[in-house]
Amino acid sequence: MRLADHLKTLIRNCRARGARKARAGRLAKELHAAAISASRDPVFYREFGVPDTFDGRFDLLLLNMFLLAERLEGEVEKTRDARRVLQLVQEAMFDDFDRLLREMGVGDMSVGRHIRNMARAWAGRVNAYRTALHGERRTEGETALSEALLRNLWRCPKPADISEDEYQAAHRLARHALSVRDRLTDLPFDRLNEAAAVLRPAGGQTETGQ
Q: 156: which residues sit within 8 A by CB, 6+ positions away?
């Protein structure tokens, strides 16, 4: 191969890699925005019984992010950019947490501690929901996931502390989450930018419609 042809090939490859990175970055931002938008939908708080508190909204966001991460994890072996998108969408979430903490007036010396706590919460939710969906009780589906939601999103570690309303709400949210998981699985990777419509509950609103 002549030097000129070799240089042209290198340039094409560099441009292709740059284009893939740019696409991955755009998709990660779109997925993170979709998770945020869905988590702000008032239907979750009005009809699904999610606590309309900082903790409730935080945990609903983590649930939506988990569902997106599950979809991306399932694509890693098939699509070369899936792992990068998975990394970038999580980075976008924690960058946003950092920004929000600072806007809330948390001092520089404390932001890192709060972020570490949020990272532990994220890892814990991923483990709990993944265990519910893929562990020994995976065949129980809705029941296993609803129990994980009660422990984490509703912060009810003891069955005796769970009210009937919370029990029913957790089952409704578990059914919704399982439906979202299935619909995301059916959505091709190159159409994951449509995830916002999948994450929203039936009768939900777009963010601009609130």
A: 150, 162, 166
User: What total of structural domains would you count in the chain?
Assistant: 1
The residue segments making up the domain with residue 102 are 3-200
Q: What is the CA radius of gyration of the chain?
A: 20
CA distances from 56 to 5, 44, 45, 88, 197 (A): 58, 10, 9, 24, 21
pLDDT in tens, 81-117: 999 999 999 999 999 999 999 999 999 999 999 999 9
Please report whether residue 209 resides in a domain. no
207 within some domain: no
